Amino acid sequence: MMNSKKNWGSALIAAALLTATLSAAQAEPAVPSATIAQAGDAGPAEGNEAVNPSSMPDQPADAGQPGANPATVSDPQATDPAAPASEDQTKLRNLAAGLTYEWSEAPDVSRPDGGNKLTDGKYGKLDMNDPAWVGHVRGKTREVVFDLGEEKSIGKIKAHFLQDYPANSILVPLTVSMYVSDDKENWGLLSHNATQLLWGEGPPRQETFEWDGSRDGIKGGDTDGKLAYARYVKVTFTMHPTHWEYIDEIEILGTDGQVDGAVKVPADQPRFLEPGEATAGIRNLNLLYNGQYDGGLGDWNKERIIPNISYVNTDGEPVDWLFDGVLYLGLASPAGRDFGLGQTILEDWKWYLDKTFASAGDMQQLNEATKEVGGKLNQPDRKMKVVLMIPNPGEYLSHFGDIDGDGVPESFNASDVGEAKAFENREKAVQWWLDQVRQRWQEANYSHLELVGMYWLEEQISTSATGPELVKSVSGKVHGMNLKFFWIPHSLAYKSFMWKDVGFDAAALQPNYFFGGMDIDRLEDAANMAKQYGMSNEVEFDDRMLTDGVFRERFIDYLNSGAETGLMQNGFRAYYQGNNAVYNLAVSKDSSLRLMYDWLYQYVNGTYVINNSPPPEANVFVNGQRLNGETVVPDTETIQLTWEVKDDDGSGLTKVTALFDGKPYASGTPIDLTGKPGKHRLDVTVAAAKSKTTTYIINAAANADTMKTHVNRFAEQKQFTTEEGPRSLLNYADLMKRYEGTDTARFEIYVRGFNARLDQLAAERAVSDTASSALKEEVYNLVGNLAAGKPASASSVEGSSAKLAPENAVDGFPSTRWASNYVNDSWLQIDLGEAKAFDTVRIDWEFARAKTYKILVSDDKQNWTSAVKDNGGVITAHDGKETVRFDPVKARYVKFQGVERNTDYGYSFYEFGVYNLAGGSEAPPIDGARAVVDPDAKKLTIDGLVMNGSRSKVQLKVVDSKGKVRYEGETTSTASGSFEFAIKLTGNLKGTCDAYLLMEGMQEPVKITFEYNKKG
Predict the structure, then answer these.
(1) Are residues 319 and 458 in the same domain?
(2) Can you tell me the distance from the alpha carbon of 409 to that of 427, in angstroms, rounded to the nearest whole number?
């Protein structure tokens, strides 16, 4: 629900990185300290010592995600696997040594496990290439189960992980959990362990996740034992949705038999949090965002609310109740500060309260809507249960505002007022908020609303030293008001498993699957995780499902998953709908969308039936012609794309949506291809419950004729300031046409000449930017990208995602892209196959562009030099399509080398083009001259073009094979710049003759040689 939901796909990696470290003293008792090895240290088996995390530099994280709150770190008192055992552990040995084990999901084939890598005693070094490491990427939480052969006493479990981020996209798990069992089916919890190392940039490091019974006790069941007595051990670790996780040794320290203090651990029965007392009786909690939003979407009136609290028919009349609880929350204030990220100040808090509790404000509108619906449903006394947010009192705010009226604004920043005072001020601010809520609620005396709870807006347990304590404090205040405390952590929330320990009554974990970047098994994983932690799940969707079949399918995936996992039947649910999805579905005249509202109603009531119906086929057309695979059209055309569904079952479920070059496209919308030569991608998604996306390629073809058409159109549109400008360009296009398809070298000469003339016109401001840009695209297409389709490699790929692979930068599609990890020193290189000459590189930047970079060239991929000689080769980047020109070079390899990023993300571009445009300015003033001899008629015709497009006098001299001048004359070129001489020749011209053409200002004439052999 935080800003992460606005663009979850791109924010998953950057914004969710935990970059601060946590004081062990403030950790939950069951969470052990970290054994941290830094680059250059030996692995655990080689006796490296624990490193104090406080020696590591803090690195800021994107706010609103794990790591948003850097912490001061104390010594974690980590233990070393090779260190001498304590006196009470001297009899413990590694029960796992040499054992085989079972994986819930096999490691990646590139980082396999032969069956005993976790138990062979070989500790991985701080190098991802060490074969000791076992690698996992994507998918559900991993489980590894050990069979000890018989019940034994277990006192300690250790699991070792590698972190190498961002260089190699390897992160330690967010949470590692440890269980024991007697039957391998029912498991008792020993501990949940949050990373103490946390996430962030830096050299390779290790972390040991550890349960130590003598220190931590046993988390599950009601026992005070220090050792567990069991046969089976299970270690689980949560997976990042895109990044790698590398694990090496797992040690199970114990002894045979049952020693004193070893106990059976009662099995936990994973289950969802059920509606009831903890949820104030709410089963379905609907989130209504009432902050500051564009278009007034944060202002809730009665008409918008009614379809959110009641199920309305197609006439808009309530038929039944829908959601039985409403959560009012806001993110942005009018000043642009974010309530969830801890940015807002007292002024913003007052604005939100005034807005929410105004006499005709959001709360009153909800009251009126509930009253009206209750009356129409003959339940006039029905009250809507309400939960209201508590803003995040950001711990780095130095000037929050004057809460107590003493004239001094409170600071929440420990560096200003000290840790204790900062904590006290944050508590004071929350107490002020709660007092205001109670006072305003009582004054309003809403007839049809019941305030039942408060909602903690921060979506994770803060990584700061005081983070858990603040939530505990606020919990006490909320419970003191006889209200319930609600929380909806995001999928990568830090320490979400300790939600009950800090005082929350009801928690619903966000799967975040809807927003992209995750596979569908994320829903099952989120459900399993929620059950393990005793919380529930949120159902997520937004208005994108109205226009995009993929998002509609994801919404249905949530419904199906809820029915499959039991969430629909048994669990408390929160519902994220963006700003207005429920209302828009309810009033939609599109039957396929209205059906989604109906299904939502069924889900809320527990009657939804799983629907996985496949989509029908669709025929797709361009300008009325059937599309099959790839279609070529001239880039002078305006195209319209349409489709029709075959064999639709008439259920109203089928919906067709499309993307053209990655952007939503509505059927029949005209697309002018001017300035868009090359390949374009149309993705058509036909969706029922499931969807199928078919990709069609439309190749907008450019050639000499299309070039001439574009020039003429721009001339007609007055895009040139002189008549000579378009004429000269047309002359180059005529010469391109002459050699097109027959002489590639000559053709490219005139393409380059066209380009040079276009540059000259642009420099003289004789052509508009619109025309110049469009014609430039034609030039680049015709001269050809030397890198197109060539092998590409990169230092890294963001999230190891195939959708962001380096080859996407040279595939010719304007909507696909490469993206690196978040490292300044990142590169992408192209193998041109052989050494080629070039003088231009074009980069089409995505948002995540460089601030500075270099273009390097090489013949051996070992020795690199800069193509740009100025400023040490460092180039300052600019948004959009950037062109870099330099003196011609010849090389086989071309490399983009990042120097410094412009954003917190890596480097990303849609296309990387390499071109050779040199030599275009060398065309003579007269070009294309040719001589045609007709011996029968004794006629010689000489024609050509004045390349600057002006009307000019052209002189001709013809000299025979003996050196005798046989003709001298003069003509004036036409308005288009063409000229022609038609000459009647007499006498014997047998042999090789020369003709010379000259214009004023030319130093040397143009010479044409021809053969003349008089018949008879």
Answers:
(1) yes
(2) 14
Spell out the residues 6+ positions from residue 567 whose beta carbon is closer than 8 angstroms to its own.
Answer: 272, 527, 530, 536, 537, 561, 573
Question: Which of 884, 904, 921 is the last residue before a domain boundary?
Answer: 921
409 domain-assigned? no
Q: 138 Cβ partners below 8 Å, 6+ apart? A: 239, 241, 242, 519
pLDDT at position 922: 63
Backbone φ and ψ for 954, nearest 5 degrees, come out as: -115, 130
Decide: 906 and 826 in contact? Cβ < 8 Å: yes
**Measured CA angle at 354 (ends 352, 360), to 5 deg:** 115
CATH number reported for the structural domain that contains residue 473 in this entry: 3.20.20
Give 685's strand partners: 657, 693
Q: Which two tokens stand for residue 784?
A: 């050809």
Confidence at residue 1015, expressed as pLDDT on a 0 to 100 scale: 59
Q: Residue 337: how many CA atoms within 13 Å on its side-chain side?
A: 18
Cα within 13 Å of Cα(376), Cβ side: 18
Where residue 46 sits, what CATH number does that domain have?
A: 2.60.120.260
Structure tokens at 209: 């996740």
The 3-state DSSP class for residue 140 equals: coil
Kindly report the number of other CB atoms within 10 A of residue 1015's CB atom.
Answer: 6
Look at residue 72 and tell me if it is in a domain: no
Q: Supply the pLDDT for residue 800.
A: 80
Amino acid at 232: Y
Q: What is the mean pLDDT of each run of 10 residues along the chain (1016 residues)?
A: 40 37 27 32 32 28 32 32 42 95 96 94 95 96 98 98 91 97 96 92 94 94 90 97 95 96 94 98 98 95 98 97 98 95 97 98 98 97 98 95 92 95 97 98 98 97 91 98 98 96 98 93 97 98 93 96 98 97 97 95 97 92 92 96 87 90 95 96 93 95 96 96 93 93 92 93 96 96 96 91 94 96 94 97 97 98 96 96 96 98 95 92 81 85 88 90 89 87 78 90 89 69
Residue 421 lies in a domain: no
Give pLDDT, residue 45. Answer: 33
Q: What is the DSSP letter of 167?
A: T
**Could you say which DSSP state residue 806 is in?**
G
For residues 507 and 488, the answer to whether their CB atoms sit within 8 Å is yes
Q: How many structural domains comprise the chain?
A: 6
997 and 904, same structural domain? Answer: no
> What are the distances in angstroms from CA 839 to CA 405, 833, 890?
68, 17, 9
Same domain, 45 and 151: yes
pLDDT score, position 923 = 67
The residue behind tokens 């604004």 is: 409
Phi/psi of residue 463, nearest 5 degrees: -80, -5
Q: Is the dihedral of CA 802, 807, 811, 817 positive or negative?
A: positive
In angstroms, rounded to a whole number, what is the distance separating the alpha carbons of residues 891 and 913? 15
- The whole-angstrom distance between residue 996's C-alpha and the CA centroid of its chain comes to 63
Q: Radius of gyration (Cα) for the chain, nearest Å?
A: 36
- CA distance from start to end of the chain: 95
Token pair in block for residue 88 = 């009470």
Assign residue 957 the CATH number of its domain. 2.60.40.3080
What secondary structure does DSSP assign to 649-669, as a single string? Answer: -SSS--EEEEEETTEEE-TT-
Whole-angstrom CA distances from 919 to 80, 198, 792, 922 are 67, 56, 28, 6
Helices (H), 566-665: 567-570, 581-587, 591-604
